[in-house]
Amino acid sequence: MTTAHDSATETKNRIAALEVATPQRDLLMDGLYRLLRNRASVVGLIIIAIFVLGALFANFLAPFSPIQINSGKGFLPPAFVEVGPNGYKSDPAFLFGTDTLGRDVLSRTLYGARVSMVVGFVPTFIILIVGTVIGLISGYRGGWVDNLLMRVTDVVYAFPDLLFFIIMMITLRDTFIGQMLNGLFLLFSSLAIVSWVGVARVVRGQVLSLKEKEFIEAARCIGARDSRIMFRHILPNSLGPIIIISAMTVPGMIITEAILGYLGLGLRPSTNPKDFFITSWGSLLLEGQTAINAQPWLLLLPAICVSLIVLAFTFVGDGLRDALDPRLQGTQ
Amino acid sequence: MGRFVVRRLLWLIPVILVVSGITFILMHSAPGGPWDRDLSARQVDPNTQRLLNEYYGLDKPLWRQFVAYIIGDYNKDGSFKCGLVCGNLGPSYRQRGLTIQQILFMPPEGKNFFYSRFGYSIRLGVYAMLFAVILGVPAGIISALKQNTWADYISLFIVTIGISVPNFVIAIFLIIIFASWLHVVSIVPRSWDQVDVWILPAIILGFGTMARTARLTRASMLEVMRMDYVRTARAKGMAERLVIFRHMLKNSLIPVVTMLGPSLAALVTGSFIIETMFGFPGMGRAYVTAIGQRDYSMIMGTTLIYAVLVALANLSVDLTYVLLDPRIRLD
What positions does the domain ABC transmembrane type-1 occupy (chain A) (predicted)? Predict the structure, then answer.
């Protein structure tokens, strides 16, 4: 009896010691701390960092210009293969081989990373802002805004989204909008038009559950304005799910860009070496697939890059979910 | 329950209207029209184009064309031609003399329904689904029962790849490995009656669903394993096999079963990249071709079929929930 009691007090003391030993952190710092203890997430973050740096400094890192045609050096297999299936001998200068025209595959892939990074981050940022604001208003105010949002959601969910992107790209590709930023502007906007709904729904759900809580009632009692309640009280409390959903949106965007590029509907390949966006992984896959038997390396490097970056974002997304919302751990 | 189903089905009408409206605006703002040919080919002469436009009513104002598509319009001789409300998806502008429903649903002479374009897509979807379930459910069960062992880690690794890597990238890897290097499967079929040419498309299409099924099964098995009734079953000395199959599996498969409908719809509607890659004679490839050819009614008809399939699949989730779990009530 006494031993049980003793061990109970001992545990209590230990817990108290732990509480004292752990410095106080706010939700985001706490989340970051837990994220960095998740091994898969750290690996994911490192991979993302490598790709971001590679994309930013592609012009310094790439051994060749991505559009430089090395005549007589086409069809070369990667340097670590001595003789490719087509009988050509490899050249150590071209680490990952060359394409049909003699352009360096490694350089082109490095430049392709730029498009994927931008397509991953920019539309996500747009939908984050749009979706959060609309979700906040619709959840807080209710009424016709809310009704409208839910009806829009129904339509967007009924519309096969990839088909929407395809129609959008084919339709507006040759217009003025389609030519802005080599077609990237159109890509961003079509991605954003469809995807903000998901964010808005998540935020709305958060707001609906939060606005009945006591601290919101208290804020209202002391006469806080609606906008203050929304942005000072509700928004910070729903940040967790918002961060999680944005991390999970990024890989979807990258995949969509790759698919559209693969169908020949993504970025317009540029021939101006001064352009920032010259080619994309999707376009590289499209160029490579005609030679899938003779020059599989044309496909393999971009395909591996797409897989790696998507996996990295998935790891980080999963890690964020576990870190910010431990209740969901391992459920999905 | 009956009222709920009716209300959800009625709700389909405005959704279809809006979806068709958006599709209509988008496809008509695309440059070019159904009579354009490749630059290399001989163009249809302007006079013929004018006659064709007149014949198909494409010379009318756009709003009138839309109304004609949805409700119907009077022909030249004064007879009324019914539109979408009668289930008429319109004539194809590129495959003359055929209506959209004939192109999509009519099998070639002497074959059954499953040899139509829609039938091919359904078959591919069902095979992919079978692959996903037959492999995904056992993988989920094993990795839950052997949690944190190497079997679990291997299965989790494959699952993560399946969920995150897009299927056309997986397709590239599998084609290079199994078709180019190992020559195990053929990817240029002489006929789609051969069995082996279905293997690769079905596996690739089903890979993502397989991964999701495995993850869902694992998660829900892990949850069920900690339930009191499982402990009770063990406590009364039941054989472990019976505990697993009769008590745990039955309950943990509820979320998996509810996912089957939407997954099948996603597989049938989401197969157009795989269909295009493999030159598969299904609905998805016809759709992609139709967009390129500006075959207006074909684009519209296929989009609507996709939208209805997705909506019905979502409805099926709610209904299976009610059937499997009597505690859930629909309002």
Answer: 113-317
Q: Is B99 helix (H, G, I), strand (E, B) or coil?
A: strand
d(Cα A116, Cα A251) in Å, to the nearest integer? 9
How far is Cα B47 from Cα B97, in angstroms, rounded to an integer? 20
The count of CB pairs under 8 A between chains A and B is 108
Tell if the CB–CB gap between A155 and B15 is shorter than 8 Å.
Answer: yes
Nearest-CB residue to B180 (from A174, A175, A296) = A296
Q: Which long-range contacts (CB under 8 A, 24 or more apart) does A208-215 make?
A: A208/A139, A210/A234, A210/A237, A210/A238, A211/A139, A211/A140
Task: Judge if ipTM > 0.90.
Answer: no
Task: Quote the strand ranges of chain B, DSSP E.
Answer: 72-74, 80-82
Which residues neighbour A15 within 8 Å (Cβ) at sequence distance 6 or greater?
Answer: none
Q: Number of structural domains, chain B?
A: 1
> What mean pLDDT value characterizes chain A?
81
Residue B87 is part of which domain span? 1-331
Residue B2, number of CB atoms within 10 A of its CB = 6
Interface of B with A in 78-137 (CB under 8 A): none
pLDDT digits (tens, 9 = 90+) for A13-53: 766 666 655 566 676 777 788 888 888 889 999 999 999 99
Which CATH number fits the domain that encloses residue B53?
A: 1.10.3720.10
Radius of gyration of chain B (CA): 24
Query: B81 — phi, psi (to 5°)?
Result: -110, 120
Nearest to B311 among A158, A171, A296 (CB): A158
Instruction: Look at residues A98, A114, A50 and name the one whose alpha carbon lies nearest to residue A275.
Output: A114
Read off the pTM: 0.80
Dist. CA B49–CA A256, nearest whole Å: 36
Going along chain A from its start, the domains and CATH numbers come out as 29-328 (1.10.3720.10)
- Where do we find the tokens 């169908």? A263
